Automatic annotation (TrEMBL), chains A, B:
InterPro entries: CPQ (IPR039866), Peptidase_M28 (IPR007484). Residues 1-19 form the signal peptide. GO terms for cellular component: extracellular region; lysosome. It comes from Pseudoxanthomonas suwonensis. This is Carboxypeptidase Q.
Length: 463, 463
């Protein structure tokens, strides 16, 4: 009985590979193979990444450099010869970092390397440190037990190719401060959500739950968290944490968009992109100038083909991803009604390591086409990973509107050595790995744009 | 004729291995073999290093932490059970660092990670950057050509086991500012004398030649030097450099000395040691808490033997090495008349990497004994390196007074990744490599203290 059911299911699966299925034409596959090889020899991705990190440098959302980054992106799309370049406004609250410091007080007095978490208020607090091994331990502390004290969540993230250690590290950053406030804490410190061993603390956005009074919140560098742990092993430790930072009105930045116009279905687009903003500590090289370079260069290679692909290739440089996916949300809202015209959408926002896996969120009728794209990517060392992956950060809001995601999984083994630190600079990027990314994005975007049939994107009715 | 001379010389050399030669007794060699194995299993070196870097942390000469470091060293010698512990005053000018920053001005505005060089005056200067590939290029600039400008020496040190790349990097730091002032510069920047790629600039002392008016002088982190080079490739770059630092009177610190008293010739000593002070940016782990841990632990292992060695083992924690060998000079002055009673002297001040070579500056009559010590060190992976080496920094002044140096060469391949940076913290030390160092110092010091005969030390007549 079970075997019979299985056989029926298999038959159904086989029969579903019908003429109605989405397919990539053979001619497009041939073209993609050439595109792939040209991309590996092309240094446009590197040059774009170098240009953004050098000429603009750090570009915190809402800062003076945010406007320069927008101007840079418009000029770069134009300089590369994209068919259309435009911007769409993105408005968000502006957070400003002015200064931050921390020091151990008393007989072992010494400075600690810290960085304020994005969204932290200013203020100077002194208090005894209470250490917690992880977020759950903090959440389990008795009510009121942290009154007048500084909570310290000392969780050590582990490095992995898929960055899965960030689930816990990122959760501590997002939810730790609110949990600490609920227990009465006057300040919050965490071991950076990182995997390096340098004196470069990792910043990143935090959020305070409604109804709570925010307290100064910061991350210690990994060696400083080690040091604080060693000091705590000797007895009580008192720390002074001083932050000058805070929210300062609203700011309107821009999503910057460049498009290669499709030859036969210009209103249908393959959306690729990356975020234009960065944290302020480094020059935002792996996060996310690399993604901007990869996707701009990939589309540019498609532009250089003898003829435009059937559909348009849209490259989106998102405003303010770091503080809450503001650019991704704005684009999704604005284009929700046209979700069905976005064939596939992918964001490159996990550094500059080689891509090792590919998948899409497409339904059954486009699985064969997904596999065809994966096969075209295979010479780049990329595996087809059915059942895996998901939308990149800024694609999430669009996926919620009905757009099918594509997933080009980057090797993130080193990503959290650098993520959100002063160390996120151009020298950390391997130009050959970057070119492999460009090749993958070019092949993927081109083939999706040439597909006969869709990948299941469909505007969802407004709730 | 030449052959005959050679034969005569060889005969002389052979005959010089007479009963008058210094020798290590067989019993001492047996004891040393046991000492070596015990040292490899002992974690005292690690514990001492951990204690100093954790409890005192950064200990800039003349700072509040300098006094804490002196108190720590006295207490640690006592706690370990050294036979004698005392201090000797060391007076030096006190330099204070308060703040430092630099930023690119104009269309590519962005901050640069800098640290003031030790000895730099305070001041804020703005000027166009003039880049030089090395010190010679700066020295060759036309007179007056840097008026109102900031000199930038962009020399990239290379890493090597023996640290030889530091000769040029260190010279730029010491002599670059004066060279820049002579050409009219209002400020001085250098690519850090380092071999890492992190946003941690390398500080270190500089000196301004007599008659020159010092200008603010700082080192850029390696990635920032790269960045400045990329910006300069695009056109003129203006930078603001702001330093608040300067000299502030005199300070008296202490050389802290612990001794294991010799059983038969207590007035004769084998001198080992390391410097107690550190720069202020890191916790002075590899520079030079490791050396303090290595030498304290080595003497402590000798203390634990069934009987004291013939001569005394003296461990010296030098005051203020970083700003001009003040502790080494003070000790040499004070003990010059007793130079002949210092059998051999060695300083551990090149990190915590494994020791790979050994030699002494002993004359011919003690070469055989030097070789015997080297043979006892060979199981630790240490080679006898006749004709190589020299005195460690604080041993230089003593060697000039007639004391024979010993050289235990540490692998410094990674040393300039960390040297004088915020990244010089405990986590960078490999406990197993540290134990190998302890074993080498224990074997060396014990055998020297048991030698029958001397190593050529002899007080030089006052000039």
């Amino acid at each position: 009985m079970r075997l019979a059911l299985l056989a029926a299911a298999l038959l159904l699966a086989a029969s579903s590979a019908t003429a109605a299925d989405t397919r990539i034409p053979a001619k497009a596959l041939e073209q993609a193979a050439q595109l792939r090889e040209r991309a590996l020899a092309d240094d446009t991705g590197w040059k774009v990444t170098e240009s953004l990190t050098t000429e603009v440098g750090p570009r915190l959302a809402g800062s003076e450099a945010d406007a320069r980054a927008v101007a840079w992106a418009k000029a770069k799309f134009a300089e590369l010869g994209f068919d259309r370049v435009w911007t769409e406004p993105v408005t968000f609250p502006k957070w400003v970092r002015r200064s931050e410091s921390a020091e151990v007080l008393g007989p072992h007095a010494q400075p600690l390397a810290v960085t304020a978490l994005g969204g932290s208020p200013g203020g100077t607090v002194e208090g005894e440190i209470v250490r917690f091994a992880d977020l759950a331990a903090l959440q389990a502390a008795p009510e009121g037990s942290l009154a007048g004290k500084i909570a310290f969540v000392d969780y050590q993230m582990t490095a992995s190719r898929d960055g899965s250690g960030y689930a816990q590290g990122g959760a501590i950053r997002s939810r730790g401060p609110s949990a600490a406030i609920r227990k009465g804490a006057s300040g919050f410190l965490m071991r950076s959500a990182g995997t390096d061993n340098h004196r470069v603390p990792h910043t990143g956005i935090t959020r305070y739950d409604e109804g709570l009074t925010p307290v100064p919140s910061a991350a210690l560098s990994i060696p400083d968290a080690d040091q604080l742990g060693r000091l705590l092993a000797r007895g009580p430790v008192k720390v002074r944490l001083a932050i000058d930072a805070g929210w300062d009105g609203e700011y309107t930045s821009q999503n910057v968009i460049g498009e290669i116009t499709g030859r036969s279905r210009p209103d249908e687009v393959v959306l690729i992109g990356a975020h234009l903003d960065s944290w302020d500590l480094g020059t935002g090289a792996i996060d996310d100038a690399a993604g901007v370079g990869i996707t701009m260069a990939a589309a540019n290679l498609i532009r250089q083909l003898p003829q435009r692909p059937a559909r348009s290739i849209r490259v989106l440089a998102y405003a303010n991803e770091e503080q809450g996916l503001h650019g991704g949300k704005a684009y999704a809202e604005r284009h929700a009604a046209n979700a069905g015209r976005h064939l596939l959408a992918a964001e490159s926002d996990f550094g500059a390591g080689r891509i090792y896996a590919f998948n899409t969120g497409a339904p059954e009728h486009a699985r064969a086409a997904t596999r065809q794209i994966a096969e075209a990517l295979a010479p780049l060392g990329i595996e087809y990973a059915p059942g895996k992956g998901g939308p990149g950060p800024d694609i999430g809001p669009l996926a919620a509107k009905g757009v099918t995601w594509a997933w080009l999984a980057q090797d993130g083994s080193d990503y959290f050595h650098l993520h959100h630190t002063a160390d996120d600079t151009l020298d950390k990027i391997d130009p050959a790995a970057l070119a492999q990314n460009v090749a993958a994005y070019a092949v993927f975007a081109y083939l999706a744009a040439e597909a006969e049939g869709d990948f299941g994107s469909q505007a969802k009715p407004a709730p």
